[in-house]
Amino acid sequence: MAVATHRPAHEKVIFTTANEWYFREEAHIPRDLNRFCKANAIIEFQRAAADVSFAVFVSAGCSHIATVEANAQDRTIKVTVWHLDEEFAEKWSTSHEAPESEFTTDGYVTSYDYGAIHGGITEDGQCVLLVYRPKGSTTRAYLVNAHGFTWRKPPSDTSLGYTISTGTLSEDSEYLFYVRSGKKFGRNGQAKVVEAYSIRHLSCVKAESFGFGDGYQMRNVCLLPHLRLQGPTYMAIDTSSFGGDDHQRNSPPLIVSSDERLHWNFAGIDSITSRGGRSCFVSPDNAHLVYVEPDAAMLHHWDLTKLSLRPLGSVRLPGVEYSTYRTWLLYGKETKMKNAIADQIHEVRYSPKCKTVTVVTVNDSMVVVNVLSTFNLQLLHHETIEDATWTEYVPLRIGFHETTGLNVFAMSPADFTRDRQGLLRLFGMKGVLIAMPEVFKKIKALEVYFDNIGERIAALPDLVDSKQVMPLAKFEWKPGIMDRNDEFSIPRTAGPTTVTNSEDARRQLDFYVNVYAHQSSSWKQDNTPELRRFFVPHLFSFTYPWAPEKRVSVFGVVMKHEYHLISIGPAASSSGSGMDIVRVLYATDIKISQDEMEHIEIYDLEGRYVLRVYTMREGCSSYSGAPMPIPRWTLMSPHFLEEDAWYDTFVIHRSAHVTMPGGWSTTPNQAISSSTNMYAYFQPNTLVVQDEINYGLRTRSAYVLPKYLLWKEFGLRGLRKGNPNDMFFGGGRYADTLGPYFRSIYDDRAYDDANPLFPSTFALACNSDYRSQQTIHIDAFFRRIRQDRIRLLDNSVTVTCALPIACRARPGATLSFMRFVALYPWAVIDVGAVQVKRGATKAKAVDYGNEWYKWRRRVEVIWRYIHMLFGVSTKVVESEPNKQLLTLPLPGFCSFGNKLYKPPPVGASFPSDRDDPFWSFVLATTPYSKEKFPRWESRLQTSVAESGKGPASPFTRLVEEILEMKDRDLQLTYLKVVWLGKLLAWKMRTFGLKIYLTRTALPMLVLFVIHLAVGILLTGGDGRTEDRIGRLVILLATIEAAASCFILSVKLRQAYRIPRQFFRSIFTYVDGAALSLGLAMFFQIATGHAPQRAFLGFSTLLIWIAAILMLRIYKPVGMLLLLLTETIQEIFSFLVLLFFIILGFAFVPFLLLRNTEGTDSALNPFSNFAMSFANILNFISSDYGALEAFEDSAAVRTLRALYIIIITVLFLNILIAMLNLKIKIADKNAANLYHLQMASLQIEIELGLLSASERRRRDWFPQWFNYSMTETETRLWEDYVEKNKLKWDEDNNFDETKDNAPPPRPLPRPLPDDWAGPPKGQLPATSTTADEDDVWATTPNVDVAAEAETPPLPQSASSPSSSATRQPSNATPAPSRSESQLQSQSQPQPPPPTTAPSPSAQPAAASASASSSATTADSSSASPGIEGTLACNVCGAPGKRCTGCRKVAYCRREHQRADWKTHMAVCKKG
């Protein structure tokens, strides 16, 4: 309910009317008054034909102002300070008459010369800093106080050129912050220096330098308020480009902090500087950033601890005027233009603990104050201050001060006249003060109320146990009240009786009628005062400390086996009067045993009323299949706090069904499903006509569990197997009706790595599906992302972090998504990694007369002539001019900023809800202690949390998942994704090659050189080897051992970080053997034992091979090694078979010719098996000399013939043929296999070779990856995707094919002129299907982002959905003009009716909830709709006839496939 306060303004003439305004150009007054009337800027006047300059400085808290009057001709400056405490009070004034030498001017002053004045005033009004430059003169700075002027050197960069750098006032009004250009440093081409100067003594107390950009395009920067001396400084950098396409021109700005913790692009901030002044505000705890969009009345909020690309939440500020777009036809082309509104200024204030944010908006006619929660942007307080006497004011500053309160300072001309030509003439200046101390008191009360509520509730249990706090009232509830005939359902056992006033009675009546006595409900009780007091007992009422006129009522809701506690309070927005919000405070489980009594207590914590519900047996209840936590502690007001987000899961679970007092089981539980706890998760105006700002947004990661549960119960109805209209434990027609309207599950913007099992909704869907071995949730997510391109950018952070889990659970869908984003139309201009260093850098100044500069220029000219002479251009020649710049829409894909977790272990089958993976995750993460709430799944959370230890980025985790795939073809298909290949090449080119060579290849080469040198020294000369161990050999052996230890440490780190890839690589064992040989050499020399010559020779060979293998990072060497290894792997089994056959041949001469008579055993080549096997191997080279002594034997001749035929002719020729074939195959896949090897090497580099500080380098691991695609590359990629289409399975065949790709939302059908509305009491034909966006349709391609969401359900005064935000029975609020226009423009109309209207006046939502409680609708019996169409043979929705028989119809392709086995015989007969 809006509060409109009328308060007159205080006016004071602060500059006399003897001064006339001077305009250098044509001005339209008062339309252009805002251009000239500004604070901290010069305003030009004329007095007696002399130029007079005037300026006003306003303190940050708006408690003091300083007026400056400067006359350059008279060389006088006057400063007057005013105290603003509900009126203007002059505090002190002083003047300065400068000597003639002080205001020196040039001999010639043009009309383009402007003077300049700027400065600041302290909050106590004691000191003023004045920086003044008359026209054509130099800049002077003065420290001014009540005692006079003191000259000081001006701040840096304020006396350059014709302009003057204006400082920005700090939050405490003690410092001025200046931004100037500095000398570039580091790897950047541009530098900005931020300096803070004290207003009291004009000394630089803080200096920081920001380096960024490439130096070719200068970037605009802006400091974000509120500026503080202590703490980081935030700078916004404009990244837009004047050239390029629309995406490059709209590149989101980059905001960085001086402590280098924030480095992020914020999409949604249109401009870093706005016409209305300051628009971006950072909280004191550096955790929040809000952006007030100019002329749109939109408040955008980002959580700086859990970053998102687009705002985490966006709401329209109630009561604030905003522009609307109109379409104009200009030169035959439709053009959208905004309507003009009055100029506005905004100021944002955070509470001390940043739990609330206050936004004050001022224009020339009113002041609007909105106080919101920073957690979910729920509106806590709204007030409008206006007065008819406010005319033509120009608001300049909004300030908060502890003594003066909330002040608004404005200015306007003191007087005006018209000359003979009718032109306006303005005189003097008038200051206007709008003081609102009582509003500031309300804001302070709100801040105190919400800043400490979480800590107070957390500390309350200990205070209650120690008897330090006693309850204000006590109640109790015992099961079986329907059987005992009790007088009171929830009797009061202690405390005073609460008086029920008319507002409480009205709320009790409305809620009772809605739940128990609704006219369209199948369960309908009598409506008597006794029944209302029994089933909806009024327990308590209270008011807010900041608004005593607003009353909150607390009721109990009694059912057959359970009860609930609700609070009903007024909405804070201005959209209607008397609208209420219903919040479920406590949802009990089904209790049948009469021994389980529950106790209810209410505590008063200095105006904050807290509810406690407990039993003597604390823990959890599980009758309904889900753990219901108890005890329950919560704030009783209808405000949704962060502490209560987790409890919404159980509230939603209990909303599925309930047993009414008469024993009638209904679906859903109307007492809960009609509350704001339920409606807040749907789109605004879906179930209730009210702004979402009244109950807050549900985009936070704290709402992951309840959103996911709602998705399971409602959003995925059409994807369930079996009867979709299951009445009990399924939602029935009510769930089918609400399913298409549930969208918040896909609004998944924040990734919270503090929750390993569900850091985001998408991650929870992946974990749940992987554990239960299903794909229904992942498929639905990927389907929605592919349907809506804007949705991908909204959820880009969560999709990026959950992509590795999705790859594990659903590889085909992930691959399809990676292809989908390859040519995504999105671009972010990269300005490089911003570097920050303490201290200032000098401004870049070029001395053109310097000799060194002249010689350098000559060398540059000579070098350029040489390039021109030999035809070498210094610029890169583009092979194709049409090159497309793209940005991968996955922010942070390469960075190590978030903890990434692996999916939980696969569970067994889940036959019941209790064993569902979702509830196992809930149990594992319950905030209750182990003593009061058993954590049965603690091992599950521990195992997942352990997987998040160690460094990991989405890129490394995704590549690890690819490398762990058993399907080689799928691995290679992943690496063929164009952007992944370009990313691998960029990483290797940027830092991978250098790191790998310097930390592995170079140490191995050093090891080989030293090992070879030691071998040469030990084997050179005569005498024994031991005699050659001298000092040089010992020194070299020590260096060899050190190199071996260094490589060993690198290998051990790789084994710890990437054990699977490390131990599966054959190169690991080669390197290990080389290291062991190097250490063995050292130990032998250290002990005085010289190594054997054989050891020296073969060890040097092995280390040389290890060093050569290190060169596999180069493509020529790498591909050759891959060709060799792949060929050996392919023929390895054949070689093993050949070895065993040759081994068998070795037995023949060994048994035939050993110990033969007439032969000397010492000369017999077959006297033992080893010699026999060696000679048989020589037969391969056709060397049969060993058989010459036995040629007379027929057996020997037979052996030789068999060997030639089997081994030489057959096997060796087969081997040659296989080698030829395998080499061709390996050569064909060598390029793809090389990419696979490079991916493995890149993982080794990033996880095993880099240090923690190197992984934080933003130039190596940027937030965005930009790559270019030429026309040829684009064409080849599109051809590849077209020829290699993906198909997941029969149920989810939405891939890149045109026929099966997810279609956009169909446009609404045009309505007939005589159609009045949808038939009442009738459900839409698609109510039994899934989300309409998930249904395949053959519709034209339309932009999904430009279409509206599903139209809201029809409302009526008796609709059960109206209880969450209820209107009084004697009031019929009408929406405002702007709201009605917005609804009429943004909401598509429902389709025309397909049957005759029903005489019942029952709305769709009420009909669904009422009829589903009594019976279920058989979807297969649905009558045909429009003439000429039939109902779908599977679900009953209108469909298209089968083209084969024309006897049956189907609504979509999947249903036709599912029914084809049954329909096939009939169709063929037809």
From TrEMBL:
Q: How does it sit in the membrane?
A: Multi-pass membrane protein
Note whether Repeat occurs among the keywords.
yes
Residue ranges under compositional bias (Low complexity)?
1355-1387, 1397-1424
Q: Name one GO biological process term.
A: calcium ion import across plasma membrane
Q: Could you tell me where the Pro residues compositional bias lies? A: 1301-1310
Which parts of the sequence are annotated with region: Disordered?
1291-1334, 1349-1429
Q: Which residue range or ranges hold the MYND-type domain?
A: 1432-1467
| Protein's cellular compartments | Membrane
Q: Which GO terms describe its cellular component?
A: plasma membrane
State one molecular function term (GO): monoatomic ion channel activity
- Residues crossing the lipid bilayer are 1001-1020, 1032-1050, 1062-1083, 1095-1114, 1134-1153, 1201-1221
Instruction: Tell whether Repressor is among the UniProt keywords.
Output: no
> What Pfam families does the record tag this protein with?
Ion_trans, zf-MYND
Write out the entry's keywords from A to Z: Membrane, Metal-binding, Repeat, Transmembrane, Transmembrane helix, Zinc, Zinc-finger
Q: Which InterPro entries would you find in this protein's record?
A: Ion_trans_dom (IPR005821), TRPV (IPR024862), Znf_MYND (IPR002893)
Fetch the SUPFAM superfamilies from UniProt: HIT/MYND zinc finger-like (SSF144232)
Q: What is its main location?
A: membrane
Task: Tell me which PANTHER family the record gives.
Answer: INACTIVE, TRANSIENT RECEPTOR POTENTIAL ION CHANNEL PROTEIN
Q: What is this protein called?
A: MYND-type domain-containing protein
